[in-house]
C-alpha cells in the first residue's frame, strides 16, 4: 500500500451496500491520466464510481452465494462491483485493461478485505485479445458498452468465456448506445431488463439492469 500511495494522490469515496460501509480510493485529480493533446481520447472513465456500478453491486450483494460458481467482472474500474461481490462470499475474478485502474482496484480490494471475506483475483484483460483460463458461470459489468466499437469484442468475450448455461448481468446508463447494444444482443440472447432509478441531491439517474442468457437451439 505504501508504494500505491507514493504513486497516486487519492480521495476516499465511502459507499454503503446492504448493511456494510465500504471505502474506495479514487484519484484526487485526473490531470496525470489525461492526454493533454486529446482530452477525449482514452478519457479515464475507470476513475469514477458510476451509478451503474452501484446498481450492479447492490444486485450482486443480494444474490445467493454458491462457492462453486465463478464470476467474471469486465471493466472493473476502481473495483466496486467485484469487491462488493467478494465481500458477500462470491468467487470473483476482476479484470481491466488500464494499468492505473488495476492498481486502484488492487488497493481497494486490500483495504476492504476482512478476515471473513474472499479476496478477488484481479488481472489484466484486453477485450480484443483476451487471455484467461477457463470459463465462467457469470460475466458481469457496468458501463462497458458506451462505444459501438466494443460490441463485437464483447460478444466474442461472452462466447469464449461464458459457460453455455451461464448468465451475463450488465448495468448500463440509459442512452442510445446501450439501447442499441441490447437490441443487437437480443438476436443471440434471451434478455430480461429492468430500469432502475438512483436519486441523489434532487437528481435522477436511470440505469438499465439486464440479465442475458444464450438462446437455446
Summed up:
This protein is 27% helix and 34% strand. The protein has 217 residues and is α/β, with parallel strands linked by helices.
Number of domains: 1
| Spatial sequence of strands, sheet with the most strands | 5-4-3-6-7-9-8
Query: What would you call the shape?
Result: globular
Please give the CATH class: Alpha Beta
The third-level CATH topology is: Rossmann fold
Kindly state the number of beta strands: 9
- Put simply, the count of helices is 6
N→C terminal distance: 50 Å
What does this structure look like?
The chain has helices at residues 2-7, 51-61, 80-87, 99-111, 151-161, 176-185, and strands at 10-17, 20-27, 70-74, 91-96, 121-124, 136-142, 162-173, 189-200, 203-214. With 217 residues, the chain is an alpha/beta fold. The protein has one domain: Rossmann fold (3-Layer(aba) Sandwich), CATH 3.40.50.150. It has a seven-stranded mixed beta sheet, sandwiched between helices. A two-stranded antiparallel ribbon has the order 1-2. Helix 3 links the parallel strand 3 (70-74) and strand 4. It is globular, with a radius of gyration of 17 Å. It starts with a helix and ends with a strand. The mean pLDDT is 94.
Give me the secondary-structure topology.
Layout: H1 2-7, E1 10-17, E2 20-27, H2 51-61, E3 70-74, H3 80-87, E4 91-96, H4 99-111, E5 121-124, E6 136-142, H5 151-161, E7 162-173, H6 176-185, E8 189-200, E9 203-214
Parallel strand pairs: 3-4, 3-6, 4-5, 6-7
Antiparallel strand pairs: 1-2, 7-9, 8-9
Helix pairs in contact: 2-3
Amino acid at each position: 500500500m505504501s508504494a500505491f500511495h507514493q504513486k497516486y494522490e487519492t480521495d476516499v469515496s465511502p459507499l454503503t451496500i446492504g448493511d456494510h460501509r465500504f471505502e474506495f480510493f479514487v484519484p484526487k485529480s485526473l490531470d496525470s491520466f489525461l492526454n493533454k493533446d486529446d482530452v477525449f481520447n482514452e478519457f479515464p472513465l475507470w476513475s469514477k464510481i458510476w451509478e451503474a456500478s452501484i446498481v450492479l453491486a447492490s444486485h450482486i450483494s443480494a444474490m445467493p452465494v454458491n462457492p462453486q460458481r465463478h464470476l467474471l467482472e469486465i471493466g472493473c474500474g476502481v473495483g466496486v462491483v467485484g469487491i462488493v461481490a467478494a465481500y458477500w462470499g462470491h468467487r470473483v475474478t476482476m479484470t481491466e485493461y488500464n494499468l492505473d485502474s488495476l492498481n486502484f482496484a488492487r488497493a481497494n480490494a486490500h483495504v476492504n478485505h476482512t478476515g471473513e471475506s474472499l479476496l478477488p483475483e484481479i488481472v489484466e484483460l484486453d477485450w480484443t485479445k483476451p487471455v484467461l483460463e477457463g470459463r465462467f458461470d457469470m460475466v458481469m459489468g457496468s458501463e462497458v458498452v458506451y462505444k459501438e466499437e466494443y460490441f463485437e469484442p464483447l460478444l466474442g468475450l461472452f462466447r469464449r468465456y461464458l459457460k453455455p448455461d451461464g448468465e451475463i448481468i450488465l448495468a448500463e446508463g440509459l442512452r442510445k448506445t446501450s439501447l442499441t447494444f441490447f437490441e443487437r444482443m437480443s438476436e443471440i440472447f434471451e434478455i430480461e431488463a429492468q430500469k432502475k432509478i438512483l436519486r441523489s441531491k434532487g437528481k435522477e439517474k436511470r440505469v438499465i439492469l439486464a440479465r442475458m442468457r444464450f438462446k437455446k437451439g
